[in-house]
Design a protein that fits this description.
Aminopeptidase, 43% helix, 6 strands, alpha/beta
């Protein structure tokens, strides 16, 4: 099985930036690097790509890769610093995407003990509606929440390992 990993944002687009200056693109890349190692150790093929100039680079590359699954990793953010938790997004007409979202969401919540914000269908996200492979977008935690930012920065491998467990559950 081949998995396409997309660390969210990249290039001149930092994504969300915490009050202390932590950039979403850097956290997402770290999580995906750990996740790619775990996947390869378990004999998955992995292609990883983070945008350089624009989001429009990601989907054509995924579609060309002939991947079986597409996983985009992000950090959530909100103006209210108390916002917290994990949510996983999928395209509403993709039953495989929904199943993958639920497996990954369950594993992340179980592992991190963070608030379960659930899985959510989204029709407006380019990477979910335009990829050939079943796709999810994981909002790992809130970079705008000081406690969650600390976990994201200091232990990205925790999120990677949980996403891996969700993928393994999906495949079983």
């Amino acid at each position: 099985m081949k998995i396409f990993l997309n660390p969210g944002h990249g290039g001149s687009d930092p994504g969300a930036v915490s009050k202390s200056g932590t950039k979403e693109k850097d956290i997402a890349l770290k999580i995906c690097e750990y996740l790619a190692i775990r996947l390869r150790q378990n004999l998955f093929q992995v292609e990883m790509y983070q945008q350089v100039k624009s989001l429009n680079e990601v989907v054509p590359r995924e579609n060309k890769s002939k991947s079986d699954l597409f996983i985009s990793v992000h950090c959530n953010s909100f103006s209210n610093q108390s916002a917290n938790g994990i949510e996983t997004l999928y395209y509403p007409t993709s039953s495989k995407g929904k199943k993958l979202a639920q497996c990954v969401q369950n594993a992340l919540v179980k592992t991190t003990k963070l608030t379960n914000r659930g899985i959510k269908p989204r029709t407006d996200l380019y990477v979910l509606k335009s990829t050939v492979a079943p796709a999810i977008l994981v909002e790992c935690a809130f970079i705008s929440n000081t406690n969650e930012e600390k976990l994201l920065k200091e232990h990205p491998e925790v999120f990677a390992n949980a996403i891996f467990e969700g993928i393994r559950e999906y495949c079983s």
